[in-house]
Design a protein that fits this description.
By secondary structure, the chain is mainly alpha-helical. The protein has one domain: Cytochrome c-like domain (Cytochrome Bc1 Complex, Chain D, domain 2, Orthogonal Bundle), CATH 1.10.760. The chain is globular.
Length: 146
């Protein structure tokens, strides 16, 4: 009887927790719409190139300021030294770049809605380093050390 109670409790806990875990990864399709705000300076995907800002292929889980061929500012490079783009760092950055690195070259006011940021990160995570389609949940989990 006790084993059945434990198993039933575990099943209920799993059913309750799974939706919450699934919600930690946003909707890449919705994130693509949010990314339209970024396209004046950034590209992502198979043919992405550095523009005013660096191309963003594989950014989730990548070292900060590590895009080949892009001239990052000294302040941004110093801030990013030893850091990896994970969910927390990306969230802080896209919410308000100037609050994170006051002398950043990035002239973007930021994205304020948590849902938009979560969806944007899911979209960014849906591309690997070569701009090929990737599993956003797996890339986010790896970047966040889960």
């Amino acid at each position: 009887m006790r084993v059945k109670s434990i198993l039933a409790g575990a099943a209920v806990a799993t059913l309750v927790c799974l939706p919450a875990l699934a919600q930690t990864v946003g909707d890449p399709a919705a994130g693509k719409k949010v990314f339209s705000k970024c396209m004046a300076c950034h590209r992502i995907g198979p043919n992405a190139k550095n523009l005013v800002g660096p191309e963003l292929n594989g950014i989730v889980g990548e070292e900060v300021a590590a895009v080949e061929g892009y001239p990052f500012s000294k302040d941004f490079a110093a801030w990013g030294q030893g850091k990896t783009w994970n969910t927390q760092l990306l969230t802080e950055w896209v919410r308000s770049p100037k609050d994170v690195v006051p002398k950043t070259k990035m002239v973007f006011a930021g994205i304020k809605k948590d849902e938009d940021i979560t969806n944007l990160i899911a979209y960014l995570a849906s591309f690997d380093e070569d701009g090929k389609e990737a599993d956003p949940a797996a890339r986010i989990a790896a970047a966040d050390g889960k």
